[in-house]
Amino acid sequence: MRYLLHDVFTESALKYPNRIAVKMEDGVSTTYKELNSLSNKFAHFLLSKKKDIRKEPFLGVIAPVTTTSIAAVLGILKIGGTYVPLDEYSPYERLSQIIKNTGLETIVIDSYWLNKHKDLLDLEEIDNVIIIGDRNKDCTVHNNDFYSLEEIKACNSSEIPKLNQVSDDLAYILHSSGSTGVPKGIMLTHRNARTFVDWMQKEFKLTKNDIVMSRAPFKFDLSVFDIFNTLNAGAKLVCFDWTKKRLGDQKHKDYVSLMEREEATILYTTPSTYITFLNRGGLAEAKLNLREVMYAGEPFPTPQLKKLQKALGRTRIANIYGPTETNIITYYWIDSLPEDDSPIPLGDVVEDTEIIVVSEDGTHICKPNEQGELWCRGGTVTMGYLGQEEKTKECLVESPFHKYPAYFWRTGDFGYRDDSGCLHYIGRRDHMVKVKGFRIELGEVEAAIAPFQNIDEFAVIAIPDEKYGNRLYCYFTTLKNQSIKKTTLKTFIKKKLPEYMIPYKFIELETMPKTSSGKIDRISLANGYL
Fold first, then answer.
1. Taking the domain 433-527, which CATH number applies?
2. Domain AMP-binding enzyme C-terminal: where (predicted)?
3. Does an H or E element contain 308, and which?
4. Is pTM, for the whole model, over 0.90?
5. How far is it, in rounded angstroms, from Cα 141 to Cα 134?
């Protein structure tokens, strides 16, 4: 029995050929039949360039979520390929590492990003560049072949012959921050994705009449729900134009206005985004038709969540939890909020998933109300990190508590079960933190700072923030008789890291606090600031 991610779309295309699948902000709509035809054209074209997909399965995508980029992703999946989202806002150094680590040879790129990434496309590893949109004549790339969307549209639109794909084939690879400065490629299979999509459908019951807002970019795992749960239900996905120039808070106001105009029924995004929509997008004043909203990626401060609940009225709100490596593993419907502003629970474990709370020393499963690390296993859990076997072995471990081989993913999150069995979140195990919904390993930020001239000692500290989950602060000292301009340091880091990983403030100290063992005292830095 086939259990593949793209099959949820092809089945809907047969069932609902004339229903609208995707609608762009400018009003241009595409039916399921038209989207299927375009995805088949991409598949036929890619097959003509990829002679052995098993040897070269990975294809990069640098594009916002649009009708055409969704068709490209579907085409990649149909030929047995694996799509690898590349963050369009990330600098050359980070993206080139990902390209070399994954062996990408073909990239689909939105024409809007051609000039920014022309050096990236000139890498010797890249053989084929497929441009979504109009060719930018000012961009010259020498070491590969460019192909236009018009060439794709000229291809055969028939379904390609069904390949011998299995559910344990990789569907996509998402990259998170790595402690050595090298991003970690999280491998997600068709089984992982379908288990996630199927459970979300069972719990949230999307129908063909639902209108879902696209909010998450391809690089963020929430996009899998936006795209594939929508297409699975025969529903309509509404896409915002992220490349359109807008001043100040206008993009937030326009997004909320688009939700209102399209009478959206479903939104799934981060707490930071909801807070921004409340404070800067006019969410509380909008006349919305949302029946359900979900949040994930970071804890939602309860005082802010109360404001959201008041603004949305009867809309149901759900807290969704799960690291990228595990997809979704818990959920909690928020029917009422605590008067004392205590944190919202993680809630119940989803189907086909087991979560155990393991003591910090790893010797026993914790009793109710005893804190420990959350370990999980099930159909949504990743195969591991691409090309990083040792790191995978640290996280994917055999349980010492089962009588048969049972492998669990160590999430790095600490929490506990209360007397009723409900799970609660405490915090991260290590230096990996969430900022604006993005998971960041502080070691990668520090690795980017380390080569800067005249810097002596430094540490990047995450300070809890009600809106963004955390803000990053860089404390540093300089070499003797030397000085550092903070603006120069910030500019240096921007060449290596995406915007959300840049520290919010740079604070120069005369000396760094130390522990008794001679290490930088990070706790004192954090407490001293607070």
1. 3.30.300.30
2. 444-519
3. helix 302-312
4. no
5. 15
